[in-house]
Amino acid sequence: MAIINPLSAKKVKGGTVENPPSPLLIFAGLVTLSLAALPIAYLVRRATQIDAQSLSIVLFRAKTLEIIFTTLSLALFVALFATALGVGIAWMLNNVALPFLGLIRALVVLPVAIPSYVFTYSWLSLGFLPSGFIAAVVVLTLSTAPYVTLAALAAFKRIDTSQLDVAQTLGLNQFGTFLRVTLPQIRNAVGAGSLIVALYVLSDFGAVSLLGVDTFTRAIQNTYQGSFDRGSAAILALFLVAISSTVISLEIKSRESTVTVKSSVQITKRLPYNNSIRVKLVAAIAIIAYLALALVAPLSVLLYRFFSRVSPLDVTELVNAAFSTITVSILGALIAMLLAIPVAFLAVRGTWIGVWSERAVLLVHALPGIVMGLALVSFGSEFPVIYQTIGLLAFAYSILFLARSVGSIRAAFGKVPLSLTEIAATLGQTRSRTFYRVTLPLAAPGVLTGTLLVFLSAMKELPATLMLRPTGFETLATEIWNNTAIFRFSEAAPYALLLVAIAAIPTFLISRPDRESERGELQ
Amino acid sequence: MTSLEIRELGVHLGNREVLHDLNLTIPSGSFAAILGPSGCGKTTLLRTIAGLVRPSAGAIRFGKQLVSVSSLVLPPHKRNIGYLPQESGLFPHLSVGENVGFAFKKEVKAEQRREIIDEMLELVGLTGFADRKPHQLSGGQQTRVALARALAIRPAIVLLDEPFSNLDHALRAEVSGEVVSLLKKTKTTSLMVTHDREDALVSADLIALMRDGRVVQSGTPESVYMAPASADIAESTGDILELPAQRLLKNRKKLISPLHLSAKKASGDAETGSILIRPEEIRVYEKKSNLPTAKITQIHYYGHDAILELALPGFSKEVKVRVTGPLNFEVGKTVALEHVGPIRWVTKKPTDE
What we know:
The complex is a heterodimer.
Chain A: H1 6-9, H2 23-48, H3 52-60, H4 62-95, H5 101-109, H6 116-125, H7 133-158, H8 161-169, H9 174-203, H10 206-211, H11 216-227, H12 230-256, H13 277-307, H14 315-348, H15 352-365, H16 369-382, H17 390-400, H18 402-415, H19 418-426, H20 431-460, H21 463-468, H22 476-485, H23 489-511
Chain B: E1 4-13, E2 16-26, E3 31-35, H1 42-50, E4 57-62, E5 65-69, E6 72-73, E7 81-84, H2 96-100, H3 110-123, H4 139-152, E8 157-161, H5 169-185, E9 189-194, H6 197-203, E10 206-211, E11 214-219, H7 221-226, H8 231-235, E12 241-248, E13 255-256, E14 270-277, E15 282-285, E16 293-301, E17 305-311, E18 318-324, E19 334-339, E20 344-346
Parallel strand pairs in B: 3-9, 3-10, 7-8, 8-9
Antiparallel strand pairs in B: 1-2, 1-4, 4-5, 5-6, 10-11, 12-13, 12-14, 14-20, 15-19, 16-17, 16-19, 17-18
């Protein structure tokens, strides 16, 4: 999040003592930059190795056009519905005095902890629900709405409530106030949330594969697995990257143009409105319905399947898979943290290397997991030492989700007032001592949040894990996938339940309201 | 104890020249105030002295030590400066004691640390606060901890950047009084930046008035108030009336103006210019013959005194006069005026605005 500290902003002008970042820091930034650029470089290289004839076959067959159409319309529909749903829920949480508000808040975010393939699995395992495009729209809308809810809630919080009071004294009713005062101010933040949803849909692999919707990710997987034709797969992947990077650049743009004007006075804590009983009832029913569909239903299906399975529970395998998931995800999160800190610090300071690394990181954020998998398979096949190692998988996670880490850490660094580092300087501290004694401790919660975000995402990641894991290395995600793909729903249930249970912990920690400003915008 | 000497200092921020040919000398152990409107470059000056801004020209000396000559600068962490920024700038993740002891080198033993911290906290009247966190303190206490932290390094010079501006009015006088008297008592060379004339006049031994990136006048509070270099400069220390006037060449104490003699009564050659009058330098009588009269247009009542705004025949702007004591004036009444202060003659013709 491009938070500029109001205290420091006015002081950051040219002419402040030029503080060239230390060579070590620049080196670290360059390392991150080149590592982030690596997957795309390999993808391009692989794609250019394809001969002209196969290229024209990939490009001009009718199937490709159909894939583009399906992918784009799926992203569009899900983004639209998730935005409507997410803003609605956020508005109710913000404006309606519901009982157990804190609990409800924590619950509506929880669907994020259910990976789309688990959601789809519970959908399919009911046996009577259809597959196909509409099913994908429903499943993905329900599981991505929280991204918009979080963005909208944060945006609502930023609006100075005295503006709403003034609007009402100027003769607007609540609806008019929402339309003319609230909406213009949350539009960009919500827009950014919708684009994140679109990005999620573009990179989703699990749900579309299980529901048989032919989007890019599924086509890439089929091309890669069916013929081991990595060239054609790379061409398709670059197509997808082009679409995703368009979305991400729109997202950055809408995020940067978010302007909220606050009056100079401290914002008064808003008491919930005196809602009529009817409004309360409608809100309660709406939220209960959402939770029932997006949370209770999939979890009950999982539980039902768990208890109705015939084969005995293989505890060793379950524990092994959980251990693998946690180990490799933590490793990925730690690598991401180490790579993100120099970039975030350099970016806050406005140095060119920081700015460029940050852009590269955001571009890489547009890489769907399957594309990352493909790129690193190409890379790994040239360096057999690292191919099919846990290290390469963890590295894939760290690069895939680096933007989340950088976003949070950068926001945290940005909030450390420049005046504090200056005081440390006048108190005899060198720049590196100031960094360790002042900047880092103050930014620690944001660094933790960013690292948790990567951990959570890595844990749920499926396509890259499928492609890059060492032979015989099973995580919770791959176990769920393996069993679901051959319709062994009951066997998948324990893994799915455990994955959701573990994922719920970081989800809960991150989505706590007091973490709002640390999360950055990229969920 | 160190004196501060600044010679021909120039600072560019971006493309803008913020400080230009600035000269200032502060004797060792004195408390100086820089007074100027916002945007005149006073904060930049303070930050340049601290080493946080790199100058483009000039030299800064702490005592005999040259800390900055043209663009060669000593980094801030080697300057031994005590810095109090606008927001007390306490490190929120550290306790009060850790804040005060922030600058300790590794060699300093725990006992000794504790001793110095206690001594500093006692100095600012916060004994026993060492384990509190900054957010548990009131605004005034935070400012005092910031002072203790600055003094703990035994600074050569203490720099204060509007340190009391975020305190509420009542607290402000109290805390600023304590801080200033402490700095004076310890004979610490101090430089405070402020846009509040009263803050500056009350506390400083030496006032430097800044305009457009340079020091335009400096001296004791009384000298800059009583003998301003120009009408413009006079405004920065208080209200001033710039009254067009003529003075007789043969007797320069004889003035012709709407407030003095009328032209008819004076004879002889005269030069044209204006005089500068403070509001308290005009006496108001309910009735007195031989004095010019004016009509009261507005009364600003402050309790301890009041400012009358008067319409003086023959002068287009309003005349402000300070009166004390019981107020028996009302708007619309005509009163007699007498100029009783020193004659500050400005030869330059007043500019018509």
